Structure formats: C-alpha cells, structure tokens
Amino acid sequence: MGCTVVVDGFYGDTGKGKIISYLAVADDVAVVARAGVGPNAGHTVVKDGRAYKLRMVPCGFVNPKALMLIGPGVLINPELVLKEVAETGIEKRFGIDPQCAVIEPKHIQLDQTDANLKNTVKTTGTGTGPCNADRVMRVAKMAREIPELKKYLADVPAIANKALDDGRNLLIEGTQGTFISLYYGQYPYVTSKDVCAAAACSDVGVGPTRVTDVVMVLKSYVTRVGGGELDGEISHEEAKKRGWDEYGTVTGRQRRAAPFDYNLARRAKMINGATMIGLTKLDVLFPDCKGVKEYAELGADAKKFVRKIEDEVKTPVSLIGTGPGVDELIDRR
Ligand code: IMP
Ligand code: MG
Q1: What average pLDDT does the segment 168-184 reach?
Q2: Which of 40, 75, 112, when mutated, tests ligand 1's pocket best, judged by the most ligand atoms within 8 Å of its CB?
Q3: d(CA 39, CA 250)
Q4: β partners of residue 8
Q5: CA angle at residue 213 from 322 to 63, to 5 degrees?
Q6: Is 273 left (phi over 0), alpha (psi -120 to 50) or beta?
Q7: Where are the beta strands (DSSP E) in 73-212?
Q8: What are the φ and ψ backbone dihedral angles of 5, each rounded to 5 degrees?
Q9: Interhelix angle for 105-113 vs 128-136, to 10°?
Q10: Could you give the residue ranges of the DSSP H alpha helices within the chain?
C-alpha cells in the first residue's frame, strides 16, 4: 500500500476511526501519523469489546506493532495526550513532534466565551481556534517546552518518510471534514485550518509525490454539528425515527442530519483527489446488511446505493462499514 491518507469527505464524524483502525491492522502498517487540527476531534474505536474515545492518540493504536505519531501541524493538549497514552498503553511506541503547538487554559477559556466562536460558529470549545491564532502570531508554546512530554519527542517527518524509504506502510490519519475546512467550508462556519488531504500530508511532513492512495470516508447519511448550511436537513424527531440521531463524542451535542449528498461527495472527491471511498454505516440505511463481510451478500437496495455513489462520484467504494465492530466491514480492494 505505501502511503495512504484517510480524510473525511463530509462535515466530520463519518466514522473515520473505524476505517483507520481496520486499515492499520489489515495493511500491516508500520507507522500511523495523526494529522488534523487537534483535540477538537473525537474518534470512537472499539477494541476487544472496549470503546476508546480518542481525541489525540491515533486510532491506528489497535495495531500493537505500529508506531503512533502526532505530526507538527497538529495542536496538542498535553494533559489529554498523557491521559490517552496511558489508557491505550502505547508508551513505548508513541512520538510527538517537538513543533506541535500547545493548547493552554487561556485558549480553552477564550474558545468557550468569545461570542462569535461560541454562538455563531459554535465551536467545540477545546481551544484549537485561539491556539492556532497564537501560533500564527508566533507566540504559541511548543511541545519541546513541556518537560512532561520530553520522553516522547520525535522527528515525525523523518520517521514517517524513513518508513516509506524502507518499503513499509504509512497511514496518515486526517481529522475533521472537507466541508469544515477553513478554506473549503462555508466560512465562518468552519474549523481553524485546512483539513483536506494535502493539508494532512503537510501536517506530518510527507510530500504529495509519496502518497499512494487517498481514502475518502463518507457516511451513508450526512451529519454536522455547529452552525452553517446543511442541504436537505431533517428534524431531530425525524432523525430519531430513521436511526440517524447521533451525539458528539467531544461535546455531547445532538448532530444535525440530512440524506447522503452526491454534490458534496463529488466536490470532496475533487478537492482531496480521492482514489477510493470508505462508506460507513450502510447497516443504518439497510438493516439487512448488518455485519455482512462479502459484497455479494448485500441486499439489492444496498448494492444499488453503492453503485449509484460510484457512478455519481466516479470513484470506487472499496471499503464498506456494516456495523460498529472493526471486523464488520467489506474490503473490495
Ligand atoms: P472548532 O474546530 O472547535 O473551532 O469548531 C469549528 C466547527 O467545526 C464547529 O462547527 C465544530 O462543531 C466543527 N468541528 C470541529 N472538529 C470537528 C470534528 O472532529 N467533527 C465534527 N465537527 C467538528
Ligand atoms: Mg468525531
């Protein structure tokens, strides 16, 4: 596989965590490098019946042989990093770039009180926007200044590129979603930086010529949290009826919901240069798909939906999630 970048083609929360943890094991990945904004992300990973809610540690940790890294583009909350490293038990295979900028209490305070951020953008309140602002002002603290992190400091670009030089597999783990990108989303209802595939590469110091595949993750329906447009939005009551009611991993807020959006999918494919689609939660639309692992065993309606996505987006739907477990997945690659 070489270098695979995983990104979200909608508004975040498409279930990247599950796809990433599957790929980390199935593709015998040597290094997983976390990209994206910072701890505003929330990924749920189920391993051995235990659910891990991760905001800093890469979801690829489920592969016990793989090295877990956080790239220099990512903002870190040191307390959260240390807590998650202990919970996942990855102390001996974890590295953080010295150039990661550090979220401080004042950033969280501002994120939760600034009228525009709180009431209009409706941010996650995790301090990422104010910290990125300080980073641009060249006054942010860096990971290399935090004594508790000293033992984890690592040259992430050097390690990631060396893995590729040695013919080993690298997984770049994007977070957030294409349409909350600072550049490609509906400003100001966006996060504090670009989060598309090219940005994910930049976050970990890997050049575009080294990328083999870009996996774009799409959910079988669309959700978004916070402000901004959502085409075809349905009411919370209707979402409950359809089983599309979801609640934020980080904020607990009920997500807004809408049907699968082919226009967004096409645009996201273009911006990310996606080579394949990872489709999640197919079992929510078609309950008879639950736990199916072979494409041939999908029902006729589910197959029709998958074919329509492939026709409209002109990209193969290579991975299909049919349930929350890591093994509830169809791999057609
Ligand atoms: P911020 O990233 O906390 O500044 O929030 C800006 C917008 O992006 C808000 O609408 C958040 O709900 C949204 N957002 C940020 N991170 C995520 C994520 O990981 N999943 C889904 N939405 C997110
Ligand atoms: Mg999430």
Answers
A1: 98
A2: 40
A3: 9
A4: 217
A5: 60
A6: left
A7: 75-76, 94-96, 101-102, 170-173
A8: -105, 130
A9: 120
A10: 16-26, 78-88, 105-113, 115, 128-136, 156-165, 197-204, 236-242, 262-272, 282-285, 300-313
pTM of the predicted structure, to 2 decimals: 0.97
Domains for the chain: give ranges and CATH numbers: 3-331 (3.40.440.10)
Tell me the helix, strand and coil percentages in the chain, rounded to 5. Answer: 40, 20, 40
Q: pLDDT class for 49, splitting at 50, 70, 90?
A: confident
Taking only Cα atoms into account, the Rg of the chain, rounded to an integer number of angstroms, comes to 19
The token pair at 259 is: 């049907």
pLDDT, tens only, 285-322: 999 999 999 999 999 999 999 999 999 999 999 999 99
User: In this predicted model, what pLDDT tens digit does every residue of 222-279 receive, in sequence order?
Assistant: 999 988 999 999 999 999 999 999 998 778 889 999 999 999 999 999 999 999 999 9
Cβ(129) to ligand 1 under 6 A?
yes
Distance 39 CA to ligand 2 centre (A): 10
